[in-house]
Automatic annotation (TrEMBL):
Regions that span the bilayer: 7-29, 35-56, 77-95, 101-124, 159-180
Biological source species: Pedobacter lusitanus
Domain Cation efflux protein transmembrane: 10-212
Domain Cation efflux protein cytoplasmic: 223-293, 315-372
GO molecular function: cadmium ion transmembrane transporter activity; ferrous iron transmembrane transporter activity; zinc efflux antiporter activity
Classification via NCBIfam families: CDF
Stated name of the protein: Cation diffusion facilitator family transporter
GO cellular component, one term: plasma membrane
InterPro entries: Cation_efflux (IPR002524), Cation_efflux_CTD (IPR027470), Cation_efflux_CTD_sf (IPR036837), Cation_efflux_TM (IPR058533), Cation_efflux_TMD_sf (IPR027469), CDF_Transporter (IPR050291)
Family: Belongs to the cation diffusion facilitator (CDF) transporter (TC 2.A.4) family.
């Protein structure tokens, strides 16, 4: 069972305080530098655990205006602070151990209490290491991992002190070299110091990497590869940044997308990428995806022109692209405000032409037809009498054509027709059929401004009970 971070740190504080006091008392009473070093180490563990006790509570605070990413990094700061204290204590133990080995050798008194306190310390540290490691892995907590590292090295230090005490105790019954007996306790204290320095390096470097947003080198290339595999993402345009705040990954992704994709398609693409990243980073991941329209290597000319016009805030239609003697010819209609005069409208036209020429890599010939923008609804009326007259003309052209409406406006007549055609007819042929009918109508009906032809599969009309001549 994984215990809560608060419960583990509370128990750890109490046990560190008790063990530190007992080790100091027995160490001073017996003159054992090894026990005193263990006491100092345990006292440091007490301070480190108190730091953990505080930072665990701080890290649990929700994000606020000043800390939009939350407070999880308090644990890394706490771990770093504990490591600094550990390094200071290790240096102090090293100094006294070396002094005793070189200048002040001497064996301490060994009693049953010496062994008892070390054995109790080993049992308590074993429990703490196991509990803290389980909790650190479960909560991905740097501060709990720091404490676990402390106490795992405490185990090594305690074993070294226990071995030294055993050698001194054994020297009562077996003749051992006096130089070893007088220095073994200080040598055991050296073991405690080196174990502390090892903890300092391991956990300290881990805390620094966390604060410096260090991540595995292979993480971003692997994620970029997965993102580029999604249809619609242009290769070599993906840029990903990831940082971890506590156990929560924050990912920022920039992707290049085909400019022909509409907003709905882009939204579907970013949703798909988010699912891919969530699968890799976990459900807690916070992911921001920024799509940027880019020109693909095989982008059609029409897509390029529409993208340029959209970027400039211009509206175009009736775009036709021709290849004339290995040169691209563009003809298009551009809508401009009816409030502009010719000179003003031509400025917008030239702006579009220059942007197209700049982006096209091959020579291009451009012709722009200016049309006043329909900024307000045009007044129009349904003319039933005129409809009857024009219907005779459309029936003479093609008996299957359905004349839906005839509108009279200030700028001419607007016709709306439905043209039933075979379901299997190719779209190119459909367009040719509509164009042919439009030309014939314009040849016989004067003052026609617009002709809207809606091609409809014959099966739809058959379902309504109609029959056809072709």
């Amino acid at each position: 069972m994984i215990q809560s971070k608060r419960l583990i740190t509370t128990i750890s504080v109490i046990s560190s305080a008790g063990l530190s006091a007992l080790k100091f008392i027995v160490g001073i009473a017996t003159g054992s530098l090894g026990l005193i070093a263990e006491g100092a180490h345990s006292l440091l563990d007490l301070f480190s655990t108190l730091i953990t006790f505080v930072v665990v509570r701080v890290s649990a605070l929700p994000p606020d205006e000043n800390h939009p990413y939350g407070h999880e990094r308090a644990e890394s700061l706490g771990a770093l602070g504990g490591m600094v204290l550990l390094a200071v204590t290790a240096i102090w133990i090293l100094y006294h151990s070396i002094s005793k080995i070189i200048w002040y050798p001497g064996a301490p008194e060994v009693t049953v209490w010496s062994f008892a306190i070390i054995i109790i310390s080993l049992l308590v540290d074993f429990w703490r290491v196991r509990s803290l490691n389980e909790a650190a892995a479960h909560y991905n907590s740097p501060s709990l991992a720091s404490d676990a590292e402390h106490f795992s090295n405490d185990l090594l230090g305690s074993l070294a002190v226990l071995a030294g005490l055993f050698v001194i105790f054994l020297s009562r019954y077996i003749a051992l070299p006096i130089w070893l007996v007088n220095r073994i306790d200080a040598i055991a204290a050296l073991g405690v110091a080196f174990a502390a320095l090892k903890s300092f390096w391991n956990i300290g470097s881990q805390a620094v990497r966390s604060l410096m947003d260090n991540i595995p080198k292979e993480l971003i290339p692997g994620l970029n590869k997965l993102i580029e595999e999604q249809k619609g993402v242009i290769p070599d345009t993906v840029k990903t940044k990831i940082r971890y705040v506590g156990n929560i990954p924050y990912a920022e992704v920039v992707i290049g997308i085909n400019r022909e994709l509409n907003f709905e398609k882009v939204h579907q693409l970013t949703d798909q990428i988010e699912k891919v990243l969530t699968k890799e980073l976990g459900t807690d991941a916070v992911i921001i995806i920024h799509p940027e329209p880019k020109a693909a290597a095989d982008e059609p000319y029409a897509v390029t022109v529409h993208a340029i016009a959209d970027r400039l805030g211009l509206k175009i239609h009736n775009l036709h692209v021709y290849l004339v003697e290995q040169k691209i010819w563009l003809e298009l209609d551009m809508e401009v405000s009816g409030q502009l005069n010719l000179a003003q409208a031509h400025v917008a036209s030239e702006k579009l032409e220059k942007a197209i020429i700049k982006e096209f890599k091959s020579p291009v010939h451009i012709k722009v037809h200016l049309e006043p923008l329909n900024e307000k609804p045009y007044p129009a009326q349904i003319d039933y009498e005129l409809k009857n007259e024009i219907q005779k003309i459309t029936q003479s052209i093609d008996k299957d054509v359905i004349l839906e409406d005839v509108l009279t406006t200030g700028y001419g007549i607007v016709l709306t027709l439905t043209l039933p055609l075979p379901d299997e007819m190719a779209l190119v042929e459909v367009h040719s059929a509509m164009s042919a009918i439009e030309r014939k109508i314009r040849a016989q009906v004067l003052d026609v401004a617009k002709i809207h032809i809606d091609p409809e599969p014959m099966s739809r009309q058959v379902a309504k009970g109609r029959t056809f001549n072709h």
